[in-house]
Amino acid sequence: MKHITHIFLTLIILTSCSNQKTSNVNIETMEVDDLKGKFSGVFNGVWVLTDYIKSIESTKSPLKSAEKFDGVVTIIIDIKNQVDSAFVGVSRNNHEGDNFTVYSITGNLENSLKSNLIDYENKSNYYELGHENISNQTYLALYHYNKDNKLIDKKLFSKVADKQSDNDAGWGLQYIVNQKLFKGDYTLIDSSDNKTNVSFKNNGIMIGMPGFNSYYVFTDFMGGPETILDGIAFKASERNSTWYAFEIKKDTTFLYNTKGDEEAGELLQLNKLIYKLVRK
């Protein structure tokens, strides 16, 4: 199973864009108050790719939903002051942290701003960051254009929190996975049919599990041995954890130990059922 990977980013701060960066943009720069008034109230927060959230709700499997990871999957914005640009923290592919700058310069749409986000596959393409309201819900929108200003694609992001509690760029995605898959109260049933009341929180806190006080759901399947299983780690401390493969079927989550040797290039396989978590 993958090692727990933390994606660190620089604390999100704001900065004024230099004259050099804006002098070659032939679009009228918005008034400083417009960025704060028109966009900060919408942009601020932690946003996760909407398609991924919908997939997690359907598959109940981070492994199956990982196919949705393509480029930016998490966006973190904190506009506090009246300035003409802002750093935006992102997670790429839920594996590495990055950032870009959004400017107080109107984009191709009234609801979008220019940015310096790079298209690494074709650097003549560019991105703008905007927002859309669909069925009375506000989404962040990342617009992808070619050099002829034609829209290539668009990604929508759903707000999962007003702010995050640490510097991990993948925090928002982890938070929503916890919420969709594990948050709630359960009856824990072990292999001897002993029953215990346990509770899982959005923030990874776990209450009632003997010997453990937190949990971590594996969502990053890049950069390590291939796996065919979803996994969760129960943690007593940062250095002391026990992980299980899991399957969610209706109101019950099944936790298994595994067999196989990753170091020898063997795929891990389900072995014995250790626990059942029955949602109350």
In short:
The protein has 280 residues and is mainly beta.
Question: Which key features would you list for this structure?
Answer:
elongated; Lipocalin; mainly beta; single chain; 280 residues; 2 domains; disordered N terminus; 8-stranded antiparallel β-sheet
* Global geometry: elongated
Class per helix and strand makeup: mainly beta
List segments where confidence is low: pLDDT < 50 over at least 5 consecutive residues.
Answer: 3-30
Strand content: 35-45%
Rounded to an integer in angstroms, the radius of gyration calculated over CA atoms is 21 Å
- State the helicity in percent bands: 10-25%
How many domain modules?
Answer: 2
CATH architecture of the largest domain: Beta Barrel
The number of strands is 16
Overview of the molecule:
The chain is mostly beta strands and 280 residues long. It has 2 domains: 19-176, Lipocalin, CATH 2.40.128; 182-279, no CATH class. The strands form 2 sheets. It has an 8-stranded antiparallel β-barrel with strand order 1-2-3-4-5-6-7-8. Strand 10 (195-200) and strand 11 form a beta hairpin. It contains 5 helices and 16 strands. 15% of the residues lie in helices and 42% in strands. It is elongated and about 65 Å long.
